[in-house]
């Protein structure tokens, strides 16, 4: 993305490890969902990396129109991946501090983004406008913490984390302690706990209630049809801990299928977020297919915009070939969006110094 037009209206400066983006003329920003502002490129000085911010003052889509959406994007690096722990925030002019701090730890690759669709409610900012918007300027902050290893290979990520309640509950599953129900996937049997399954899934809850008075309820067994044992284990990890440990293409597809079947909406969100964060030229088309098959509208819209922007690279991938061969209707939808985008871009070219534009 070019940031030439945006650079006239904003600036990036480095304060130790914190990067600040000053957005000028805030009240002139678009009030339409999905229209965003792109910051100038900046670098941390690590591995010739180049970053920028994507900011949507009215949210990235209709579902987030009452929020600011904010993302950090790795535009370029000379390494396959960069492991970063980042924190996004808004500068408080009154206290000199940073508020609404949110972040994550992510392994970035080129053209990959990470952030929050619902970063902060607009009302929370505007109710204390004098703290956050001064002289019609808003300052976005980002603190980077790169994974650094010393000569002995020590990493800050190797420090043991304190056990939580979920770790303890998961240990009961792994040791089959006090289990009272079995789930079977293929030839693998998992010894589980009815209370946990019922609390986390309305589908499992209905199954258990239906058999609560039967003589076999104490030795109840549920078949997880058409589910690989590895997928079943990760689904159960999510049910017990709210987390997923292992991700790859086949795993995510299996987990999305399980999430739909057993009404695990948060698992679906985790998978969608993982796909969004790992999108690159090579997997964009296959990710679009996955988003289409599992009705992930927000991810699907993002894929279409991403592919249309980097079409010259995506068109040579296996995923795009599969899209052409197996999903003609979806390909047609992609091409129609590209035509509409080209038409809109041509119209934008007639407006000088336009700083608000649609982002991926």
From TrEMBL:
<dbReference type="InterPro" id="IPR002083">
    <property type="entry name" value="MATH/TRAF_dom"/>
</dbReference>
<dbReference type="Pfam" id="PF22486">
    <property type="entry name" value="MATH_2"/>
</dbReference>
<comment type="similarity">
    <text>Belongs to the Tdpoz family.</text>
</comment>
<dbReference type="InterPro" id="IPR008974">
    <property type="entry name" value="TRAF-like"/>
</dbReference>
<keyword id="KW-0833">Ubl conjugation pathway</keyword>
<dbReference type="Pfam" id="PF00651">
    <property type="entry name" value="BTB"/>
</dbReference>
<feature type="domain" description="BTB">
    <location>
        <begin position="179"/>
        <end position="248"/>
    </location>
</feature>
<comment type="pathway">
    <text>Protein modification; protein ubiquitination.</text>
</comment>
<dbReference type="Pfam" id="PF24570">
    <property type="entry name" value="BACK_BPM_SPOP"/>
</dbReference>
<dbReference type="GO" id="GO:0005634">
    <property type="term" value="C:nucleus"/>
</dbReference>
<dbReference type="InterPro" id="IPR000210">
    <property type="entry name" value="BTB/POZ_dom"/>
</dbReference>
<feature type="domain" description="MATH">
    <location>
        <begin position="16"/>
        <end position="144"/>
    </location>
</feature>
<dbReference type="InterPro" id="IPR011333">
    <property type="entry name" value="SKP1/BTB/POZ_sf"/>
</dbReference>
<keyword id="KW-0539">Nucleus</keyword>
<dbReference type="GO" id="GO:0030163">
    <property type="term" value="P:protein catabolic process"/>
</dbReference>
<dbReference type="InterPro" id="IPR056423">
    <property type="entry name" value="BACK_BPM_SPOP"/>
</dbReference>
<protein>
    <recommendedName>
        <fullName>BTB domain-containing protein</fullName>
    </recommendedName>
</protein>
């Amino acid at each position: 993305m070019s940031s030439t037009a945006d650079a006239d209206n904003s600036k990036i400066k480095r304060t130790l490890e914190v990067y600040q983006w000053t957005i000028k003329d805030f009240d002139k920003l678009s009030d339409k969902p999905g229209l965003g502002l792109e910051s100038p490129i900046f670098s941390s000085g690590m591995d010739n990396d180049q970053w920028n911010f994507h900011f949507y003052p009215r949210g990235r889509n209709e579902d987030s129109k009452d929020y600011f959406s904010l993302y950090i994007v790795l535009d370029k690096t000379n390494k396959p991946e960069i492991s970063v722990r980042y924190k996004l925030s808004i500068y408080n002019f009154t206290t000199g501090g940073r508020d609404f701090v949110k972040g994550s730890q992510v392994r970035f690759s080129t053209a990959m983004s990470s952030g929050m669709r619902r970063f902060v409610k607009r009302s929370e900012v505007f109710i204390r406008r004098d703290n956050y918007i001064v002289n019609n300027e808003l300052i976005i902050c980002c603190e980077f913490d790169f994974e650094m290893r010393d000569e002995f290979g020590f990493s800050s990520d190797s420090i043991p984390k304190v056990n939580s309640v979920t770790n303890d509950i998961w240990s009961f599953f792994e040791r089959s302690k006090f289990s009272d129900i079995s789930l079977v996937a293929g030839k693998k049997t998992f010894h589980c706990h009815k209370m946990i399954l019922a609390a986390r899934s309305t589908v499992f809850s209905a199954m258990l209630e239906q058999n609560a008075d039967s003589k076999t309820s104490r030795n109840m067994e549920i078949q997880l049809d058409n589910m690989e044992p590895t997928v079943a284990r990760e689904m159960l990890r999510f049910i017990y801990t709210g987390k997923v440990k292992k991700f790859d293409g086949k795993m995510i597809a299996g987990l999305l299928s399980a999430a739909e079947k057993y009404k695990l909406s948060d698992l679906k969100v985790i998978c969608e977020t993982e796909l969004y964060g790992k999108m690159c030229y090579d997997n964009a088309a296959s990710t679009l297919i996955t988003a289409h098959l599992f009705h992930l509208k927000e991810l699907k819209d993002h894929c279409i915009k991403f592919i249309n922007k980097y079409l010259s690279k995506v068109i040579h991938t296996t995923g795009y070939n599969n899209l052409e061969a197996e999903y003609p209707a979806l390909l047609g939808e992609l091409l129609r969006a590209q035509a509409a985008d080209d038409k809109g871009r041509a119209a934008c070219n007639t407006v000088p110094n336009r700083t608000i534009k649609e982002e991926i």
